[in-house]
């Protein structure tokens, strides 16, 4: 436990030193603020609260950005230390390889959570301060929470890549590939399949299953249709009625997407010869 | 008391290539041992095996009484200090932060770090980032982390590379003092001559196998290398002196007021008595075979194996 904590602390300290924390926080805050003030202009004075509309655009942004940030943090975590030679010394200490993975995860998750909470939170505070009503804050909080879960899932996937591939360059390439697959290609392929298939094989339950097989989709459904009744602004109202995925199931899917790659990363690392 | 390190029949294969084969030795507490061998002789692999970083293909390893691969072996590493060859640290942290990180991993108090930085002469650079350290300073920081938690066992892989002669001196004094306290130190080095006076056991590795093992004196005896006497003379040897030297099996060489005598080790005292009695010999220096020469001797004819 002391080992996990020490490694996590070191990751956070390095995140402060190499300005990862400040850069990601500023990036998320800038995007969130511009989305909330520029992006909500089209709604004019219709009944929809700005916070709710901001939530929709922010969660779409999160799907693109948070997995990318998480993968960039994680892909280098193990193979980078292996390459530089710091892993040799670290593992000569009374530290198990599980401690290493969990410590890195805890540290990186803290960085990601800080950036998300402060970055997105600042947008919410700015909106409320400029006179928007506070309605929808539960959904907004839930969005921040699930965004962190989404980031955590891609951190875990990143460690698995980092432990399995010993070359940094290859790990980086693979991480970008995974990002493209889950964030862009998967949905397009799914859409194409649905058009071609016309509902013969891909029925609603099959579609549900396919959505759960991608952490980004689980997050999307969770925020755009599941939580807090914002589905009417998202165009997902129809989908969510057909594809009735319970909130609990979606969160469980995200948690599984965190746990399984993390365990796999630990197992791969344990077999690795330093 | 049980051995600090016990290896028997240890082999490690990477694919078909043997990095280490059939290595066996025992080291007791307080010994300072040199692991000598060319690049790729298996020194670093042996360190990795003893630290549990990699699994042996065959044989058994006990370090401080535990199998390094086991959980107990992992816990035993609290009492082991390791300085890898070409030690690397995160460049973003300061020297003190780096040391505190490693102290936390060994569950040692942070207070220990200041004292250690002082001990290796880095107290002034404690708050400087490691990225701005010179090679020698990084090496000293590496030594400081190896000394965390009062280790009973030290693995030092090429510890003096990048250190200037003065620091080398104090480094060996430190290792010597630790040996007095019962710390077992296993160090590998290319700089054989500087190891000579500080070790009580030598293990010569060649292509992953132990070529010779023993105290420096025992290896000297085994090698049977001649002792060299360097003489300063005011006049050349006369025929009588040369004959007597020849009778002892001593070969005389040298020129112009300097003579070198090469004599079998067991005839050293006879030779000394003889030349000390010669009135025109004004100075005598004895050169025992060095570790370099012993190493070269054991390696002779092995290169193409």
Q: What is the number of beta strands of chain A?
A: 0
* Spatial extent as radius of gyration of chain A: 20 Å
The dominant shape of chain A is: globular
Q: What kind of sheet is the major sheet of chain B?
A: 6 strands, mixed
* Mean pLDDT reading of chain A: 86
Q: Helicity of chain A, in percent?
A: over 70%
The number of helical elements of chain A comes to: 12
Task: Give the averaged pLDDT of chain B, no decimals.
Answer: 88
What oligomerization state is this entry in? Answer: heterodimer
Widest sheet: strand ordering of chain B: 5-6-7-3-8-9
CATH level 1 name of the largest domain in chain B: Alpha Beta
Name the biggest interface: A-B, 25 and 28 residues
Walk me through the structure.
The complex is a heterodimer of chains A (274) and B (305). Chain A has 274 residues and is mainly α. Chain A is built from twelve helices and no strands. Chain A has a domain at 2-180 and 261-271. Helix content of chain A is 78%, strand content 0%. The longest helix of chain A is centred in the middle third of the chain and has 33 residues, at 97-129. The radius of gyration of chain A is 20 Å and the shape is globular. With 305 residues, chain B is α/β, with parallel strands linked by helices. Helices cover 33% and strands 27% of the residues of chain B. Chain B has eleven helices and 13 strands. In chain B, strands 5-6-7-3-8-9 form a six-stranded mixed sheet, sandwiched between helices. Chain B has a four-stranded antiparallel sheet with strand order 11-12-10-13, with helices on one face. The interface between A and B is medium-sized, with 25 and 28 residues.
